[in-house]
Amino acid sequence: MEILKYNFKNKALLELALTQSGADATNNNERLEFVGDRVLGLSVARLLYEMYPNESEGELARRHAMLVSTETLGKIAKKIGLDKILRHGHMTAGRVVHILANAMEAIFGAIYLDGGFDVACNVITEIWRDLAAQDIIAPKDPKTTLQELVQRQDAGNLPVYEYLDATGASHNPIFNVRVTAMGKTATGRGASKKTASINAAEELLKILAI
Predict the structure, then answer these.
(1) What confidence tier does 162 reach under pLDDT thresholds 50, 70, 90?
(2) Residues with catalytic annotation?
(3) Which residue, 101, 205, 102, is CA-closest to 197?
């Protein structure tokens, strides 16, 4: 892909990476996504290890979680115009970011298979270096922030997450999660249980005015 400064030797790999399962149930990008997820994770881990030599494992882990999140991948995918060239089935609003994130990982998997790890790592590092440098202090995800707040102010108790019934079509569900802490409750929605629980924690933090 020109935008990623990489030219595929095997164009079929790129075509496969750009084919979502909704467009082709047999020949799609799911297996490439599986590979790309690992390539991305290791590449970003190495980048952070080099950029932040004085940070602890926990601090690096928080940065890593943010940088490889569905939300970050979805934003990058839109920035490079992946949403305009991805072949997909029907995408509901709640699944757009999730599908784009998966396709982004699939492309990294395809680059790895086509050119090797060092090449894929260089492509990823080129994109992620500026993102990794944006936060001077290692960020905390909403679930971690909420947990630390509750433990500190509510006698060591923990937030309680309840997974509610999913909504939407059976092949394209939207997950719903309720979180309760310090006498307050909030709900969150998302394309995965993880995303829904993060969104719920974020909403409860707003209610608690943190």
Answers:
(1) very high
(2) 37, 105
(3) 205
Its sign, for the CA torsion 154, 159, 189, 19, is positive
Distances in whole angstroms, Cα of residue 161 to Cα of each of 99, 118, 173, 180, 201: 25, 40, 19, 7, 9
Task: Give the tens place of pLDDT for each residue, 10-34.
Answer: 999 999 999 998 888 889 999 999 9
Q: Against a cut of 0.85, is the pTM above it? A: no
Q: Is 59 exposed, middle or buried (0-12, 13-18, 19+ CB in 10 A)?
A: middle
Please tell me the distance from the alpha carbon of residue 141 to that of residue 67, in angstroms, as a whole number.
Answer: 11
Q: Which structure tokens are listed for 53? A: 């030599």
Q: What is the CA radius of gyration of the chain?
A: 19
Q: Quick one: pLDDT band at residue 170, thresholds 50, 70, 90? A: confident
User: In terms of DSSP bridges, do strands 160-163 and 184-190 run parallel, antiparallel, or are they unpaired?
Assistant: unpaired
Q: Yes or no: say if 202 and 143 are a contact pair by the CB < 8 Å rule.
A: no
State the amino acid at position 50 in one-letter form. Answer: E
